[in-house]
Write a structure and sequence with these properties.
binds copper (II) ion; single chain; binds 2-acetamido-2-deoxy-beta-D-glucopyranose; Immunoglobulin-like; 4 domains
Length: about 575
């Protein structure tokens, strides 16, 4: 049964006859569903109202979106509307233990979100890896005054797909038996969590394709046989029309492209999403790396052959320019974050920013911010392992994200689009002047890919008081601790932010405190705060640990396994060697 969203008119006080806004209500029971989306494996997934895939959300600028959630799965869960600013509405942002206690099984929570922006977004679970198990859907916000003309639109949500549940894979990933931190490799990839999607095209029409990467791990390269793509939107920001043959899209990023239909119906054409093998430690023979949807002009026409495409270089920030210009300002404060993976003193390979692996506090950080009075400006109250950064209201902040790892990482900041102002090689050490792309009108987006052994500088104005999570959007890396907490303008939260009683009821039901500092205490007494693993004493390097691990293992398992060991060591160390 598909439950249609309920649209109701909300009357605006005031004189404007033209502007009206609707309250759009979705009733979403979060449920388990048994299904076989890739045709290879029946499994339990997380869906909505007994349906899979979850339906897309479709609203218009200035609407109010209401999602009545009933948690009917056996674990606490939350929803996060990715890319929404949630100005004055931080309590509806959704990341578990950052802005809310998760919704206990059997309980309800209503997400009420005034729609203050437009473009292509997505909505997904933000507790544990619920989105990897299917709890993700496109979230489209229409602008009645679109910048570009088009006749029709389609949304393509690309995602990787696993056969085991996230919890099972996470146990294998964050394990002493995986010292190199090799991520679980997906079994397949899907468009809109289905196989064989089709998009009907008519000659003469212009189509807007909204392309969303809802993956846990994989990066895709997009191209369409026989058609050019003109990029017009990046993460909700309209950009100057730019024609491309192919472009890469990292986890959580979105692009809209305009595609002009051909003049004849004599062929049908494939839309390609090719997974980038660079992300995977091993590529199993059985994995279908390249997936396709089909543009249908005429069901009886033959398929045009696949064109060979050179992925080439694609530099989003150098290529694309926002339609609504916004100059950058000199930064009042600069934060430097260095991402790396290290075997910690629990002998598990964890992700760190500045050698700290994120561990959620006992009290969701937003509740600490609103309950600590003037101490809320002191980062100590948020706990060591939530890794907080307190920003002053309306200051301009530059964050340099250094990627000191062999893999590429897409970093996402909640509550903002930031300016991508610069990019450099290696770890920025502050000694040389930074080379900026463009301070006149830099690209703005909410998820930026930082390639291996490079750094990216982002800037934004701290004009959205609230607690905003900053993290890698590869779900495995978030679970490994690649996150930090931005506490924006706590001194300005009073009078702007509220937290409803339902939040506190959920904490109580889960046996969690809902006020006080990160440990649930008063003042600066952090006794009993959640603590993470720490770095091992200096002389142990990750590479050393990996080698030691296999040496010990081979001694334990015996000589009979020498060949197997040698193969595996090469495989595992291959990743380290790229450092
Ligand atoms: C949305 O609301 C803003 C602020 O009230 C108003 O200026 C704008 O015209 C509205 N837009 C639409 C499409 O209703
Ligand atoms: C959600 O589940 C409740 C039972 O808890 C049921 O009454 C209701 O009809 C369901 N709603 C939808 C939209 O499926
Ligand atoms: C989205 O909503 C708009 C406005 O209500 C409607 O015209 C359109 O058909 C909807 N699109 C989808 C895919 O449901
Ligand atoms: C939760 O929502 C469902 C469906 O809307 C309703 O039947 C149920 O009474 C609600 N439960 C609580 C505890 O509010
Ligand atoms: C989505 O992003 C991931 C991680 O960045 C990437 O590996 C995958 O190929 C992307 N998918 C698409 C369709 O671009
Ligand atoms: C379609 O045909 C018209 C008129 O012949 C031509 O101007 C136009 O470039 C063609 N468009 C495409 C996409 O081939
Ligand atoms: C996938 O497509 C790329 C080009 O985009 C090609 O180089 C590669 O060989 C293809 N892989 C498979 C397994 O077909
Ligand atoms: C915090 O507020 C208290 C009482 O409201 C006041 O006594 C104290 O001086 C303030 N502390 C700081 C650091 O402003
Ligand atoms: C920066 O962007 C502006 C606006 O798009 C453009 O006019 C200018 O040439 C760019 N400057 C540089 C140095 O790229
Ligand atoms: Cu990552």
């Amino acid at each position: 049964m598909l439950v249609a969203p309920v649209k109701a008119l909300a009357f605006l006080l005031g004189l404007s006859a033209a502007a009206h806004a609707a309250v759009v209500t979705y009733n979403w029971n979060i449920t388990y569903v048994n299904t076989n989306p890739d045709g290879l494996m029946d499994r339990r997934v997380i869906g909505i109202n007994g349906q899979f895939p979850p339906p897309a959300i479709n609203v218009t600028l200035n609407d109010t979106l209401v999602i009545n959630v009933v948690n009917q799965i056996s674990e606490p869960t939350t929803l996060h509307a990715h890319g929404l600013f949630q100005t004055g509405n931080n309590q509806m942002d959704g990341p578990s233990m950052v802005t809310q206690c998760p919704i206990p099984p059997g309980s309800n929570f209503t997400y009420t979100i005034p729609i203050q922006q437009y473009g292509t977004y997505w909505i997904h679970g933000h507790n544990k890896g619920h989105y990897v198990d299917g709890l993700r859907a496109p979230f489209i916000i229409h602008n009645p005054a679109e910048v570009y003309h088009y006749d029709e639109e389609y949304t393509l949500g690309f995602a990787d797909w696993y056969h085991d549940e996230h919890a099972v894979l996470l146990d294998e990933y964050l394990s002493i038996f995986n010292p190199s931190g090799a991520e679980p490799v997906p079994k397949s990839a899907l468009i809109n969590q289905m196989l064989n999607t089709q998009y009907s095209f008519e000659p003469g029409k212009v189509y807007r394709l909204r392309i969303i990467n809802m993956s846990a791990l994989a990066m895709f390269h997009i191209h369409i046989d026989g058609h050019d793509m003109d990029i017009i939107e990046v993460d909700g920001v309209d950009v100057t029309r730019t024609s491309v043959k192919t472009f890469p899209i990292s986890a959580a990023q979105r692009y809209s492209v305009l595609v002009t239909a051909r003049n004849t119906t004599s062929n049908n054409f494939l839309i390609h999403g090719d997974m980038d093998p660079e992300m995977f430690d091993t590529v199993p023979d059985t994995l279908q790396m390249n997936i396709t949807g089909t543009i249908i002009y005429d069901a009886t026409s033959p398929l045009a052959p696949t064109e060979l495409i050179d992925w080439g270089e694609f530099d989003d920030a150098a290529l694309l320019t926002p339609v609504i210009p916004m100059a950058t300002s000199p930064a009042d404060d600069q934060i430097s974050l260095t991402a790396s993976f290290q075997v910690m003193d629990d002998y598990i390979n964890k992700a760190t920013f500045n050698d700290i692996t994120y561990v959620a506090p006992k009290v969701p950080t937003l509740y600490t911010a609103v309950s600590m009075g003037n101490l809320s400006s002191d980062p100590q109250v948020y706990g060591t392992y939530s890794h907080p950064w307190v920003l002053k209201h309306n200051s301009w902040v530059e964050i340099i994200i250094n990627n000191n790892d062999a893999g590429n990482h897409p970093f996402h900041l909640h509550g903002h689009v930031f300016q991508v102002v610069g990019r450099g090689e290696g770890v920025y050490d502050g000694s040389t002047p930074y080379t900026y792309f463009n301070t006149t009108n830099p690209l703005r987006r909410d998820t930026v890919l930082v390639r291996s052994l490079q750094n990216v500088a982002i800037r934004f104005q701290a004009n959205n008081p609230g607690v905003w999570f900053l993290h890698c959007h590869i779900e495995w890396h978030l679970q490994a601790g690649l996150a930090t907490t931005i506490v924006e303008a706590p001194e300005a939260m009073a009078g702007i932010l509220t937290v409803d009683q339902t939040h506190f009821d959920h904490c109580k039901a889960l046996g969690l405190p809902s006020s006080g500092n990160a440990a649930g205490n008063q003042g600066l007494d952090l006794t009993g705060q959640n603590v993470g693993p720490n770095l091992l004493p200096g002389k142990f390097t990750t590479k050393g640990i990996v080698a030691l691990f296999f040496t010990v293992l081979s001694a334990v398992v015996g000589l009979g396994t020498v060949v197997w060991y040698a193969q595996d060591e090469e495989l595992v160390l291959g990743k380290e060697d790229r450092r």
